[in-house]
Amino acid sequence: MTPSDVKRWMYRGQRPNWIARILNRASAAVASSGIASNYLVTLEVTGRKSGRTISLPVVVAIVDGQRYLVSMLGDDAQWVQNVRAAGGRALLRSGGREEVLLEEVPAGQRAPILKAYLKRAPGARPHVPVNKDAPLEEFQRVAAAFPVFRVASDKTVHPIQPARREARNQVCGRPSTITRSRFR
After folding, report:
1. pLDDT, tens digit, for every residue of 39-94?
2. Per the CB 3.0–4.6 Å rule, which of 44, 92, 169, 180 could disulfide with 174?
3. Does this model's pTM top 0.70?
4. Structural domains in the chain?
5. d(Cα 78, Cα 89) in Å, to the nearest integer?
């Protein structure tokens, strides 16, 4: 069984199985902390049915200085439907919080974005039936099947400062980060 087969197995029926959900939670925690590279972020969007905040890790593709989010699972991905239901309002976390508006990109403009995305997101390659080094014409053929959203934001990212984190922990009744031990 190849790594691509494992990835497809983890997302059978275009939904993550229990292993993929655990890995996604871990990836979202790492992405939102800001430890990971700047292209791995946590997307938070309000669930269209539950009303709860849904968090998941996503890879940001950058083309011509613009940031884009791509759904590797296509139109049926729950986060895509939630973003559409929320009118594009969402939150990106990567060491700080950034309120954003996600604007869907027309299918005719998605090919270069999909190509940049596949170069940056190796985990998505088994789900997109085009080689990352293929010409743009091949990406154009499959572009309609993979929603792409441009990240629009006027706000700057403000990382949580250690002093603010300490004050927040005291208000919430959490132990100090200084006294916390990771080897308990």
Report:
1. 788 899 999 999 999 898 889 999 998 999 999 888 888 999 999 999 999 999 88
2. 169
3. no
4. 3-157 (2.30.110.10)
5. 15
